[in-house]
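So, can you check this record?

>
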Amino acid sequence: MQIGIDQLAFYTPNTYLDLVDLANARGEEPDKYRIGIGQSEQAVIPVTQDAVTLAANAAIKVVDQSNRDKIAMVLFGTESGIDNSKSAAIYLKRLLDLPDNIRALEIKQACYGATAGVQFAADYVRLHPDKQVLVIGADIARYGLHTPGEVTQGGGAVAMIISAAPRLLNLDDETAFRSEDIMDFWRPLYRSEALVDGRFSENVYIDFFKAVWLDYQNQTNRTIADFTAFAFHLPFTKMGLKGLRAILPEATETQQERLKANFEASRQYNRQVGNLYTGSLYLSLRSLFDNAALKPGQRIGLFSYGSGAEGEFFSGTISDQFKAQKSRQWFKTFFSNRKRLDVAQYERVFSQTLPQHDVYLDTSYDDARFVLTGVQHDQRQYLDRDQHKVTE
């Protein structure tokens, strides 16, 4: 029985910052960002969007009447949670009008949370092949204005349906993982922006990738020749390229060209969105599905990394049901129609945060279906515009 990713959708708001504008404002050469970091644009997240609304706006694309009653769990990977006790998945479950006989949990380990959700979901579906699991990766990446990490900000959400007989990717059983207590990136409870040791974090990322890749090879006896493409966690797209380069010498020249071309396909969307934290790997996978010439049966390698640190290498084969995806046109239209903010506008949006008291937010400029309308009695208020009702 084959288990894997049946659907994979994405959402981010329609406002963005061109990183050439940011480079000029910060006195940097634009190529430092476009080539050195590998980023062109980044999503700018308004205060009317949080991890819950981002997730809802992505998930509504993969949840409908055809599968609503089949979903047995919601697993919400995030490091941008809105409550120290209550799971973001509980809010999402209500916004999506999912049934009550369901598990709804939040998973946290930096950018690794969604991958933990995928693996837990796959194990569940193997035992319950008539059920599905909704897995979310939703985050807002914040490092602060005028900081070294500013160029790697962004945000958005991916939503995946894990099922039997998937239409996108059949997950292999073998997986290799590693965890160590490392202070390369962290965000204490009292901070809204993350702290990061950038160079150290890059080195740990590469070390973890090489370690889990070797472990995976030892488990499976597969080599780089067995893979059509690799998808990476992309806090910035140059990071994934560094990971790929670490193993390219294992491939023939022809194989290297194929892998490099498919990596370029896999980072197109991330270049224009920025850092998604838990969703970054899966936006890259969506970009690979949409922009590479893939065929059923081809094997894809996936590297997930969460600072602090947890890494995992796993793989899957393209489903026999895989076909050209409509989402490629959706992304093309979306990127063409986004609103470009200048640096002053971006800084104003970035600086708008929820106060530590009740507030009503103006949502008139936010075109999303699900929005955060404010806080009342210390409870976040969410609006589903299609239902014309507020959900607390």
Residues 174 and 219 are 7 Å apart (CA to CA).
